[in-house]
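tool_log.txt
---
The assistant was asked to compare two proteins side by side. It first ran the structure predictor on the initial sequence, then on the second. Raw inputs and outputs are pasted verbatim so the downstream comparison step can read them without reformatting.
(1)
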Amino acid sequence: MSQAFQLCILRLSAIGDVCHAVAMVTRIRQHRPDIKITWIIGKIEHQLLQGMLGVEFIVYDKKAGKKAKQEVRQALAGRTFDAMFVMQVALRANLLSTVVKAKRRIGFDWERSKEGHWLFTNERIEAQKYAHVLEGFMGFADKLGIPKDTDPRWDMPLDKTDWEWAKKQTAALGKYAVISPAASKAERNWTVHGYTAVAQNLIEKGYKVVLCGGPGPVDFEISVKILQTPDIIALNLVGQTSLKQMLAVLADAALVLAPDTGPAHMATTMGTPVVGLYAHSNFRRTGPYLSQELVASVYDVQIKSQKGKEWGYLPWGIRAKGKDLMTYLLVLTVLKKVDRALSELDTE
């Protein structure tokens, strides 16, 4: 009897990128359940995916420094994989990949091989023009000859307790929308005025508004400012949920409003419409994958102003610079996207 094909995936972070990777893993598992998958993942990201069927996780805690790399080495001692997906170009991830023994070390194409990424691989995925991050990740599955799906699917591991917790919190609300206002960098966040204006508009449309976010200082600071406007937030869950609990809350929302941050992609995995707010990065590459038409963005204008060329004539993925770019995103522009999202729900 032949031994099962052993695949190692290295993708440590971040939450959004890990969500994109789940779509690729789901595709592999559905078409090739015989492939044994081991995923080296960041500690925080593992909190979201822990319990995912058919996947063995090796957790890397970057805060542990050199000890973290040694722990991965020990966990994989004596093992050789048939293939490894080196799905992160950051130098730390590239160096970590050296503890994994694999016959095929598959990395990104030349254009995306930054920080010496190509030195740590012996094969590359096909180059893709104007590819979303999720589509780029699918290139790894293509390399193994995995059949393609028409649309991506996500096998997100939510426990019964997570669903029960979320429903208990939101049971009295009826229809609700979620605002997840904070990205990891404050410059990516929209204005407090903008968030409160949208919240008031949602209330007028018959929706309660739930505030979601992590426990970090950026999340806390902007949520406090939003809450200063009375009677617009029905439920404040900022810093009050696990990642899985937040995922369950996002899953039952009518829509999610968020800047370039993890919860936008978490909501996408559950099929919830996302009104994404963008200025610094090209939403065509990093925006919520199933809600591209709902994105409100000033990226195109800002990048042309800074570089003198439209985005299609610039390197793919180039970012616009500036701490106040999100202030150029008008409330009216966002409200039009919210209206479109809700009207599409009404027609379903």
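(2)
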Amino acid sequence: MRVFVTGGTGLIGSAVVAELLDNGHTVLALARSDASAQAIEAAGADPLRGALADLNTLRTGAARADGVIHLAFDHDFSSPDTLAKSVAEEGAALAALGEELVGSDRPFVAVSGTPAVPGRASVESDPVPTDGPVGGRGRAVTSVLGLSSRGVRSSAVRLPRTVHNQGSGGFAGLLTNIARRTGVSGYPGDGAQRWPAVHALDAAVLFRLALEQGEAGTSWHAVADEGDKVRDIATVIGRRLGLPVESVPAETFGPLGQIFASDQPSSSAYTRQALSWEPKHPSLLEDLENIQP
């Protein structure tokens, strides 16, 4: 299968591209810079120059492929305005890709996030939130899944709060960056809230399985660790960086503070059973031992 991939040079995307190539697929990947194009070529894929905002380029990539995996997102969480801009940009991109695929029966795998459900771990049948700081992402991926009624084998791989590799990535990576900047390895509240996690290489396998096997309109959970306490995550970060570990105000984490403070464990039991997906790489707490002081 020839697969068009957006976000193919990021932490997750580079792993997905390698996973696809290692399993007999060919890849056409969006490249927004010369450096990205070179990285894509070095990986063994073909670059398509353009940015996520270039909707005509996205349509061209989808038209030239047997399937699409969308991963690109501008992770600028510095202010509510920049976050809103990133969410709107992604929504427009998903709509353009989806329209190009209507009536083709080709697979379209979109990235999403695991939802938070009060009192229990979320499961694949739970809806994603459509309000709050990133509610627009939930509305966009819900529209993608709705394309299943228009001749698109659309599905969503829901990523947990931390997708990691070699101690970096995701919410835990943001905690690390903030700790380096502030001199405190902080956590909101009492730190008992739980975050799910997955290694990037395990997530990449699930994206491939969803592309190859996922039925139209389905959602899958790329969750290896159902929920690590944020205090435990911060403790490892503090030890690796030689910094004190303390509770800090949620405002420390900017527009994501509300999300950082919520308890949001998630299960992947159905995904593992239905797609025979089994995570094999280090857990988050193990992987954080790779953080360099």
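---
observation on (2): The domain at 2-160+199-223 is CATH 3.40.50.720 (Rossmann fold). The first helix runs from residue 11 to 22.
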